[in-house]
Design a protein that fits this description.
Strand content: under 5%
Order of helices and strands: HHHHHHHHHHHH
Structural class: mainly alpha
Number of strands: 0
Shape: globular
Number of helices: 12
Helix content: over 70%
Largest sheet: none
Distance between the termini: 33 Å
Radius of gyration: 19 Å
Length: 299
C-alpha cells in the first residue's frame, strides 16, 4: 500500500509539473507570436502554425499506435473544433497582435471560461446561478477596463483589435460547449491532429486570397513558428488534455489564468510593453469573474 500511495503522490507531482510547464509555455507564446506576426502575415502565420502542429501530433499518435481516421460520430466535433477553436481563434488573435501589445491581448483571449456561461445556458439549458451571472458581469467589466484606453476618436483600430480578441474568446467558448455536449467515440488526443489539419486546410485558401503567395519566413518568423507550432500548440494541446484528466475544471481554469498574467510580465520584460492601471484592473476583474464562474459545482 505504501508503494501504491507513493506512486499516486509521484503521479500527482508529475501532473503539477506538467501544469506549470503548460502555463509557462502559453505565457511565453504570446510575445513570440507577437514577434512572429511582425515577420509573417497573420493568416499565413495561423495556417503554418496548425500545419506544423498537425504534423507533430500525427507523429505522436502514430508512435502511440492511436492514429486512425475519425469515426463518423466525431466528424461534427472535428469540424467545430478545427474551425472555431483553432482556425478562427488563432487567425483573430494573430490579427489583433499586429495592433495590440501581447500582454494586453492575452488577457482577453484567455477570458473564454466567462463566455461559456451564457452559451451553456442557451445551448445546453444549464441553469446560471447568481454567482455565475456575477462572475460573467465581472468578466465584462474587465474587458471594458482593458479596452478603455482605446475609447477615443483615434482608437478605432485598437477597438477593432479588442473586438477580434473577444470574438476569438467567444469562438473558443462555442467549441468548449460543443465538446461538453458531444459524446466521444475516439479519444481526444486521436482527434486533435485531424482538428488541426482542418484548421490548416481552411486557413490556406483564405491566406492565399487575402495575403497572397507566402513570403520567405525570415529567422524570427521561422523561430516563432517552430516554438508555437510544436510546443505551444501540439505539446500544449496534449498537455491540457492530460492535466484536464487529473484536475477539476474550476482548478484548471484558475490555474491557466496564470498564463496571461505571466505573459504580461514576460512581454513587459522582453518587448518593453507598459503595464498600466486599466490592464491591472482588467486582469483582476477577469480573474475574479473566472473564479466565481469556476466555483460553481459541476463547472
Amino acid at each position: 500500500m505504501a508503494a501504491r500511495a507513493q506512486g499516486r503522490v509521484s503521479a500527482g507531482a508529475q501532473h503539477r509539473v506538467l501544469l506549470c510547464l503548460l502555463i509557462l509555455v502559453w505565457a511565453v507564446s504570446w510575445p513570440l507570436i507577437k514577434v512572429g506576426v511582425a515577420a509573417v502575415p497573420p493568416i499565413w502565420y495561423a495556417c503554418l502554425r496548425y500545419a506544423i502542429a498537425a504534423l507533430s501530433l500525427f507523429a505522436l499518435v502514430t508512435a502511440r499506435h492511436e492514429a486512425a481516421f475519425p469515426p463518423r460520430a466525431d466528424w461534427s466535433l472535428v469540424a467545430i473544433c478545427g474551425v472555431l477553436q483553432m482556425a478562427v481563434y488563432s487567425a483573430l488573435c494573430a490579427f489583433a497582435l499586429t495592433i495590440l501589445p501581447a500582454g494586453r491581448a492575452s488577457v482577453l483571449a484567455f477570458s473564454t471560461p466567462i463566455w461559456v456561461v451564457p452559451l451553456a445556458t442557451w445551448w445546453l439549458h444549464e441553469r446560471a446561478s447568481r454567482t455565475v451571472l456575477l462572475g460573467t458581469g465581472f468578466g465584462l467589466l474587465g474587458a471594458l477596463a482593458i479596452a478603455a484606453p482605446a475609447i477615443h476618436a483615434d482608437g478605432g483600430q485598437q477597438l477593432l483589435a479588442y473586438a477580434m480578441l473577444l470574438g476569438a474568446a467567444v469562438s473558443w467558448a462555442i467549441s468548449m460547449v460543443a465538446v461538453r455536449a458531444h459524446r466521444f467515440t475516439a479519444t481526444t488526443l486521436a482527434l486533435a491532429p485531424w482538428q488541426m489539419l482542418v484548421a490548416a486546410v481552411l486557413l490556406l485558401p483564405v491566406a492565399l486570397f487575402v495575403e497572397g503567395a507566402p513570403r520567405p519566413l525570415g529567422a524570427s518568423g521561422a523561430a516563432s513558428l517552430a516554438f508555437v507550432g510544436t510546443v505551444a500548440t501540439a505539446f500544449a494541446y496534449w498537455a491540457v488534455v492530460e492535466v484536464g484528466r487529473h484536475f477539476r475544471a474550476a482548478v484548471l481554469s484558475m490555474a491557466l489564468l496564470a498564463a496571461p498574467s505571466l505573459g504580461i510580465v514576460i512581454s513587459a520584460l522582453a518587448l518593453g510593453e507598459s503595464v498600466g492601471a486599466s490592464l491591472i484592473a482588467g486582469v483582476l476583474l477577469i480573474a475574479g469573474g473566472i473564479r466565481l464562474v469556476g466555483a460553481e459545482p459541476g463547472k
